[in-house]
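Notes from hallway chat w/ T.B., transcribed later so I don't forget. T.B. wanted the structure written out for a chain they're using in a teaching module, and asked if we could keep both sequence and structure tokens in one place. Agreed to drop them here.
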Amino acid sequence: MIDMHSHILAGFDDGAKNEQEMLEMCLLASRDGIATIVATPHSLDGQFLSDPDEIRLGVAKLTVALGEAGIELRVLPGMELRIAVEIPRLLEEKKILALNDGKYVLIELHPSQIPVGFEYLLEELVRLGFGAILAHPEKNAAIQANPEFLYKLSSRFRAWDLLIQVTADSITGRHVRSSARTGRILLQNDLVHIISTDAHSPTVRPPRLSKAVEAAASIVGEERARQMVEHVPLAVLGEGEFPEAWAPSNPRRWWRIW
């Protein structure tokens, strides 16, 4: 399995606190069947502004430490970017990181709102040759109130230009009830493309995917659930082909029909 969203690098944000905790998280991930994990420290969120070269160096040091500890896990560089109008410019100037220095960026919304013109920012990224992965939208209050927004947003883009990532704990029900409910709605309506851990520590949101894949399989089927942690992430990393795209349905609330 491939985990596309993890705060596993120590000293960059509110994730792993030190090297010991970082290695413990890596061991948990490896034992759970995760073969590759993308380190995505927060950036542009008003608190953290990570430097691409420092992230690459951190990944290189962690790779050495994993070899010395005998932990079989590949770690790749990335960032989780809070939505900002500067993202296209900063990508062109190489001041922020796409996942694995590739063509997809991981974008996080503010927890409570969706900024006006968000879709135009995504369209600009696509125009520049990038794709966007929307991180854990099930945690956003506006989307919880209106999941139909994601269906309408997705309809503006070609297949695989905009991907939706749901957090493992939202699927297993370990996260808050509103996030779990919305995550399930998105799965039921084929609006999820990637399942990731968004791991922050060995105990709070740990780096485990297997239980979430089992839970997702009960909704979308085993093949689709495995694609969300294998084939789709592999294609995002530029190491494979995307599977056949699945068409989403509209999670319209029943009272909106009248």
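Follow-up for T.B.: The first strand starts at residue 2 and ends at 6. Might be a good example for the class.
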